[in-house]
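pasting for the record
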Amino acid sequence: MIRFFPLTVALLIFAVFAGCSKMPDKELIKEEILNTEKAFEKMTKDKGVAEAFHFFADKNAVILRGNDSLITGKNNILKFYQESNNTNAEVSWNPDFIDVSDCGNLAYSYGKYIWRIKNSDGKINEYKGIYHTIWKRQPDNSWKYVWD
């Protein structure tokens, strides 16, 4: 058993680094994520919440709504926002922190958000909170969220 230990360690090290062809420039990727966040936020203003959350979603994305509700899948996310009272919503957010995986194919961000929803009387209700988003690099090198 002991004579196989070095081989086992070598195989484990290989397995950990096999997915990384080269070490990424994490600062550059953090800037990409920040730019993606800002483009996402801008699209919510330009094309609406439903379109933006659909466009920036990975095909298997999940969003958490409420304390016990998950919306799973890009098309279900679109449907959720189209059918909710968020059609008159405006949302803004700013990441306080962004980090990147060692391989550079995943990243996450978190920060503060503000939802403003105009009700039927024209009154604006404001909701503030903290968000956490997990980003996944796509085959075309764009970033889509897998968790929000």
